Amino acid sequence: MLKACVLASSSKGNATFVRIGNDRFLIDAGISARRINKTLREIGENTRSLKGVILTHEHQDHITGIKTLSHKYGLRFFSTFDTYQRIRKQVGSFDADFIEVGEDFQVGDEAIITPYEIQHDSADPVAFLIKDRNDIPLVGYLNDCGRITPFLIDGFRNVKVLIIEANHSFDLLLRSSYPTFLKLRILSSKGHLSNWSAAEFINATVPQIAVLSHRSEENNTPGVSLSEIETLLSDKITKPFIVIVPDKERSTIIRTLE
Ligand SMILES: [Zn+2]
Ligand SMILES: [Zn+2]
After folding, report:
1. Residue 191 Cα, ligand 1 centroid: separation in angstroms?
2. Chain centroid to CA 1
3. Order of strands across the sheet that contains 161-165
């Protein structure tokens, strides 16, 4: 049984709840512990039942809640060594288990988690593929990623729930008031995925549910994102059910039966 909810997702803060069987954990903690607590209660969960937090990278919009979650709730964190070192400089020491690209790890008994190497302007960023004990790929989490690669596509193929960055509309970004250096950073191989890239990844991996996340508030809108992606979805695939995370709010609760 899978239950998931994107508690918050934008360049201002990212945190996602995942439950597989009795394993409950977060992917990133980029909003306050108070907001995590409140939003978890809205969906019938609570912070104290979490088994840990798995971290993608050290940018502020992914780590804001770490200090309180660590000190007040005693949660365990899982991150690469380089990511841990960067976060420690910002928030002080916290309990962490070190993970490595390509090495499966567990936060509890049921979810098997594989970190994938991605390109982004941080020390050692990762995406996560989460399977159950029967090797069924249940959740793929790919955010803050400059380029999709054949290796990522191969790993994430047929995942049930794909939580994917659809950060910007290429057209809106080009026309935006952002300074050129920032536009170039976002578009670079270490930047963020566009709506077009998200559509390409969905076409290649064919998830059952695609959750569009990490949307820019300046260079994208829910409507633009949906229409750009739907236009590019291939007629040759079974189209996924698409979930849009509303601005400043959580997503709907996502469930699968198996
Ligand atoms: Zn981010
Ligand atoms: Zn980032």
Report:
1. 10
2. 20
3. 112-117, 126-131, 137-142, 161-165, 209-213, 241-244
Range of the domain at 23: 2-256
Query: Which residue's structure tokens are 């996340």?
Result: 213
pLDDT of res. 258:
60
Number of domains in the chain: 1
Is 66:77 a contact under the CB 8 Å cutoff?
yes
| Share above pLDDT 70 across residues of the chain, in percent, rounded to a whole number | 99
**Distance from the alpha carbon of residue 134 to the mean position of ligand 1, in angstroms:** 31
Looking up tokens 């939003």 gives 39
| CB under 5 Å of ion ligand 2: residues | 59, 144
CATH number of residue 48's parent domain: 3.60.15.10
Q: What is the largest CA-CA distance in the chain?
A: 50
Indicate if the pLDDT at residue 1 is higher than 90: no
Return d(Cα 108, Cα 111) in angstroms, integer: 7
Q: State the sign of the Cα–Cα–Cα–Cα dihedral 68, 69, 71, 73.
A: positive
Please state the φ and ψ torsions of residue 242, each to the nearest 5 degrees: -105, 130
Structure tokens at 23: 């394993």
User: Residue 72 pLDDT more than 70?
Assistant: yes
> Per residue in 154-164, is it b (16+ CB within 10 Å) or e — as a string?
ebbeebbbbbb
- What whole-number distance in Å separates Cα of residue 10 and Cα of residue 31? 10
pTM: 0.97
57 C-alpha to ligand 2 centroid (Å): 7
